[in-house]
Task: structure prediction
Amino acid sequence: MLLAIVSPPCWGQSDAISAWKQKVHLQLKSHARFPAEACGRSGEPKLGFALDRSGKVISSRLLSGSGVASIDAAALAAVISAQPFPPAPPELPDSDLSLAVVLVFARPPDVTEQDFKRSCDLLRDEISLRNRLKGVCRGC
Result:
């Protein structure tokens, strides 16, 4: 249910730096999970995060929120779960190891509203079942 990551292109960068940024964005996108609590809603949180040269996250923060707390939390969680990112290319200055990205959480355009609602209902049911099982099965 995650639609895309949007980042403005940088035309003056080397191919290696552009390829590295693309890999970072794709890795971040692959770790973003649409929160069940936000089903039926959408948001575009803007994140800032800094990496060390080996790809480890040094810091991350919300630059601007989406207006949906669970979407903002999911975006920040994606940064942490996606690490380590690919190592930075040698020609990338240390000052460029701080990145800003916008994650777009929305219904994909190729999914009908009815199918989207159905998947949200199934996800909510699954979470409800898990919560009930936690209450019954301690330590299972």
In short: The radius of gyration is 18 Å. The chain is about 40% helix and 20% strand. The longest helix spans residues 113-136. Residues 43 and 66 are 5 Å apart (CA to CA).
